[in-house]
């Protein structure tokens, strides 16, 4: 029996990895900047090298075979090791430098990013970081930012996204507000309370109604599109609003409303351009953000 081949072409491995993660040759080709026929030939070449069938076609998509699924774990480990080698080498040559723009909501930028930026400053002191406090994904498409932290998955084909966590959110109000208006014991009690809007009252009603809250637009008499301003209004005692638990816990003078309620799950997506795979500085920032925001994630 012939010895198994060990001098694999890494390009073939990359083609296999991209196809496995994207689920189709066309999407994998876009990710790697290749034509679909070229990528297909690389995957076929790897199957010939290994004498294994790695994919089977299911409808218009490709599905990993048992052998392909087993190989995927090893190739992903190889990719992580290769990324680390690249980052170490780049760090030694002092090329991880220059400007990286991160866009996130106002609240996220003010409350959750600073500890991450402290770690980034330690790991890559020559990086320059600019925070674009905005909720608009077009910041990436207009190249006004390199990496976005968002709560919805983008659908633009030129972007890649990773779901890194699902944060808990609760309802909060200032202690001074609850001392004045009373602490609700049930959802029904909320009909007598005031709410702050992080946007338009109409949009907020659409958010609260599915939760069973007895609210109308008249309950939202004050608020702001700027999340930091709206949260400060809450802290000053103007009403109730939902907020991520990490923010609520560190805000003085604020307490949780209806603590018996199950938390609202808030997805956290990291999004960037496909050049993530060719830019060491963006890759480093992306990976540090993913590490801090939650290690459970999946590339899409």
TrEMBL record:
HTH lysR-type domain boundaries: 8-65
One of the GO BP terms on file: DNA-templated transcription
UniProt xrefs under SUPFAM superfamilies: Periplasmic binding protein-like II, Winged helix' DNA-binding domain
Keyword vocabulary terms for this entry: DNA-binding, Transcription, Transcription regulation
InterPro entries reported in the protein's UniProt record: LysR-type_TF_proteobact-type, LysR_HTH_N, LysR_subst-bd, WH-like_DNA-bd_sf, WH_DNA-bd_sf
Gene Ontology MF terms in the entry: DNA-binding transcription factor activity; sequence-specific DNA binding
Pfam families in the record: HTH_1, LysR_substrate
Similarity comment: family membership: Belongs to the LysR transcriptional regulatory family.
Name this polypeptide is given: D-malate degradation protein R
Annotated organism of origin: Thalassovita mediterranea
């Amino acid at each position: 029996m012939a010895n198994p081949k060990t001098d694999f072409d890494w390009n073939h491995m990359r083609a296999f990895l991209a196809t496995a993660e994207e689920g189709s040759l066309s999407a994998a080709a876009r990710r790697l900047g290749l034509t679909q026929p070229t990528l297909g030939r690389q995957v076929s070449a790897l199957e010939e090298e290994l004498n294994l069938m790695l994919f089977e076609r299911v409808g218009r998509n490709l599905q990993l075979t048992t052998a392909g699924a087993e190989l995927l774990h090893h190739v992903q480990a190889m990719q992580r090791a290769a990324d680390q080698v690249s980052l170490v080498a780049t760090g030694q040559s002092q090329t991880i430098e220059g400007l990286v723009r991160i866009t996130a909501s106002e609240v996220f930028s003010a409350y959750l990013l600073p500890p991450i930026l402290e770690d980034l400053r330690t790991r890559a002191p020559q990086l320059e970081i600019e925070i674009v406090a905005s909720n608009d994904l077009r910041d990436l498409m207009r190249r006004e930012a390199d990496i976005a932290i968002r709560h919805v998955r983008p659908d633009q084909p030129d972007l890649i996204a990773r779901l890194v966590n699902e944060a808990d959110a609760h309802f909060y109000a200032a202690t001074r507000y609850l001392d004045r208006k009373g602490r609700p014991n049930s959802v029904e009690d909320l009909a007598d309370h005031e709410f702050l809007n992080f946007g338009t009252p109409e949009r907020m009603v659409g958010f609260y109604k599915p939760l069973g809250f007895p609210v109308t637009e008249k309950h939202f008499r004050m608020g702001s599109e700027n999340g930091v301003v709206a949260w400060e209004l809450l802290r000053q005692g103007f009403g109730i609003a939902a907020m991520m638990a990490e923010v609520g816990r560190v805000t003085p003078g604020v307490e949780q409303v209806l603590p018996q309620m199950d938390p609202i799950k808030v997805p956290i997506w990291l999004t960037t351009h496909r050049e993530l795979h060719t830019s060491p500085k963006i890759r480093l920032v992306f990976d540090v953000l993913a590490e801090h925001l939650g290690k459970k994630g999946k590339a899409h």
